[in-house]
Each structure stands twice: as structure tokens, then as C-alpha cells.
Amino acid sequence: MNQKNNLVKNASFLMIAAMISKVIGLLYKSPLSSIVGNMGMGYISLAQNAYMILLMIASFSIPQAVSKLISERIALKDYKNAQKIFHGSLIYAAIMGGVVAMVCLFGARFIIPSNQPNAVLALQILSPTIFLSGILGVYRGYFQAYRNMMPTSISQILEQIFNAAVSLIAAWMFIRYFTDGTDGSVAKWGAAGSTVGTTAGVVIALLFMFFVYGVNRNAIKRRVKNDHYHKEESYGEILKLIILIVSPIILSSFIYNINGYLNGVLYSEIMGKHGMNADTISMLYAEYATYFMSIINIPLTLSSAAPTSMIPEVSALYATGDIDETRRRVDQTVQLSMFISIPCAVGLAVLAQPIVSLLFGGTNGVAGKLLMLGSFTILLNGMSNISNGVLQGIGKPKIPMITAAVALVVDVVVVVALLMFTELDIYALLVAMIVYAIVVCVMNDFFMKKYLDYKNPWKAAYLSPLIASAVMGLVAGGVYYGFHAVLPSNIICLGISIILAAAAYFMVYILVDKTAAERLSRIPGGTVLVRIAHKIRR
Question: pTM (2 decimals)?
């Protein structure tokens, strides 16, 4: 495989793994919602949102930081210090993860909204996961720095499989053995049991990464032993470097993602003061944070996979002064992201209600409306993820932090204003989500032009997917609602419409984009797609 194709190949592997992981994560939530109920799903969402913020403080962005630091050393063939950065990162992750895990365990009741105390136990059970996730992140970042995305991809799939299985089993067991039979008790203990699965998934993924590292241990030792050209840095220097690089990245990710947690707290507190009871708040929040976000997070995760694989590539190229090739790699990432994100957005908008009804039978219909209105945020978030990755990769980690901080202020103002002075209710969170993403995209685009002289490839990246997606949307809607008029089976009608819509997208894309074959050849299994493309063109 030539180096030019590494970026797209690596991004594709991560996207495939992310797709499988998120599909598993989505599918298991359907039976989970049946076990714990809508109220329990609301508690899970509140606990998970708080957990993600704590995880970001501890180590969430450490794979990106580690891959950046190590890839820069590898580009200079400084294998000795690359390995020392790996060991130093493990020390950093263990210390930070341990401290934040203790905060989670003993401070959970201060983090969860005051009118949702039943979500506290679910958050406390997640505390060991914070410590373990930091260690896991270092190992993933290490292999990503060497352009090997397979360990990360496989570990993500294993993590989600065990997460799903253990979550369902533990939720059922907790409800059976610990509840008093009331709705509130079932929701509380069901939510607590489900979070056990998160820890189980991380443990399995970490064991797998230990195994992969062990297999490669001798080769790693030889590479380090043969490096006689570089002066070995002290652990003090390494840790200082890690803190200087990791801290802005973590802080920017923290600011970038804390809006979800803050929006949940603001929604719960403000609507509670407006007279809405706590159970209704929890159930409506589940429609947004669990049902809507679980579905939309699949394409959002795909769009974030591209910048994850891009960072070591961009960092290495930028470190060697190859600016033109840096811009070309960014273009490839944008094109790959839009190739997937645009049809996902259109498809989810057209088939929103039947998809939500199929996956979450307990929905009251709000999640479907949210999905229909908010699906295009996939594009905005995809671009913001890529631009964040680029700016971090070229040594400007403070800029995503600044843009995220500005967007966060705007987000909070919008949420408070809409909840206080309008009747939008839960839809206020969707509006704030859209506004937040727009602010980040606009500001990051400005800074990419300033520091990289980068111009977004609007025509090359967006036009063909948009045309193909428009046709796809017509096919998806026409087939589903046409079949559903005579065949009252949601799953059969959905299956037929999705298959035909996907085929329509691929065919139209091939016909309207002259470079489609070249792009398809860069992704796993692309040779098969190229052969099909050639037949279509004939």
C-alpha cells in the first residue's frame, strides 16, 4: 500500500469499526429501553453525559494527543523517545484517571441535577471505567501513531459487544434482585445495572490491546535498541511535554462536549421550576439524549473517525514542512466524510419516524420529529470534527478550545433564552445544538484559512454526494411510503427502501462524479466497488 492511500485506508477502517460499534450500541438500547423504561433511559443519559465530561477531563482525547506526539518522533526516526512518550503517557493517564475516578465516585450527587437523584448510582458505578479508559486510550493512540488502525478498530467492536451483552444482563439482574417494584425503583436500579456494561466493555478492549502490544513487544524493543542517533529525554521532560500538549486538547474537547451535559442540567432545572414533574422531564430527555442522539451518533461517529486517523498523518507532514501534501490529505478526509455523512443525513430525515418507531417502540414520537429536523447537523459536526483535528495536527490546539468556548457561551445563552421565554421545550436543545455546530464550523474555517491557507473543496466534496443523496431521498421516501400503504410491516418496508435507496445513491454518485472510481479504490473493499462502477458507466 503506498503512503498516499494510507490516510483514506486508515480512516475507512476506523469508520467501519465505528459503524459496527454504533449499530451494536443502537440495537441493544431497544431491548434495554424495554427493560428499564423511558424513565430509566433518561437516568442513563444523565449519568452518561456526566461520565463523558469526567472522562474528557481524565483522558478522553489522549489517543489523539499520544498519536500526535509519537507520530512526530517516528517521522524523525526517533524511536527511543517515541517509546518513552508511550510510557510517560501511561503514567499520566493512570494518575489523572485515578483522581477523576475518585471525584466521580464520591462527588456524583453534586454532578447530577438535584431533581434527578435516581441517576446518581448509575454514575458512581461508572467511576472505575474512567481510570481504565485512560490506559486504553494510550494504547490506541500508540498504534494509531504507527498508522495501524486495526487494533483500535477491533478493540472498539469488542468493547461494544461486551458492553451491550453485559448491560442487558446486569440491568435485568439489578431490577430482579434490588428493586421494590415501583416505577422509580425499577428505573433507578435498571439504569445502574446498565452502566456495568460500560466497564465490562472497556476491560475486554484493554485486555485485547495488552495482547496486541505483547505480540509486537519484541519488534518494538529491537526498534528502540537500534536507535543510537537520538538523545534520550528524561521522564520529567516527557511528562511536561505531554501535559503541555494534552492539556489544551483535553480542555478543548471538554469545552466542545460539555454543552451536552450543561444542556441536560439546564433543561432539568429550568423545566422543573416551570412546574414540570421530574418523571416527565426524565422521559422527554430520554427522547432527545437517548433515542435521537443514539441514532444520529452513528454517522457522527463515522465523521469523527476520519480526523482521528488524519492527525498523525497531518502532524508528520506538517512537521516536515510539506504544506501542499498536508492540504491534499485534509481534502481527502473531507471528501470521504461527506461521501458518507450527506446520504446518512438525507436518509435519516426522510425515514425518521419509521426508524425511531422500529428501534424504540416506547417512544412518544418526539424523537422522530427531532431526527427529521436535526439530521443535517451530521454535516456540521462532521466538518467541525475534521477542522478540530487539522488545527490540533498543525500545532494549534488552543484554537479549537477558543472556538468551542465561544460556541459554548452562545449555546448556553440560546438554551436558557429558549427554555425561559418560548414553548419549544425539548426542541430548544436541538436548536442550541445546531447553533453551536455552526459557530464552531465558521470560526474553525477562518483559522484554517489563516494558518494553512486551506480552502474547503465545496464542489469536489459536496456536489456529487448532494445530487446522489437527493435522488436517494426520493427513492427512500417513495418506496417506503408506497409499500407501507399496501404492506403494514414497518421492518420489511424499511429494509426494502434502505436497500434500494443505497443502490440509487451509489449508481447516481458513480454517474455524476468522474473521480468516483479513484476515491472508491482507496477504501477497504474498494476494488469490488470500482468494478461495479465501471460496469455502471458502460
Answer: 0.76
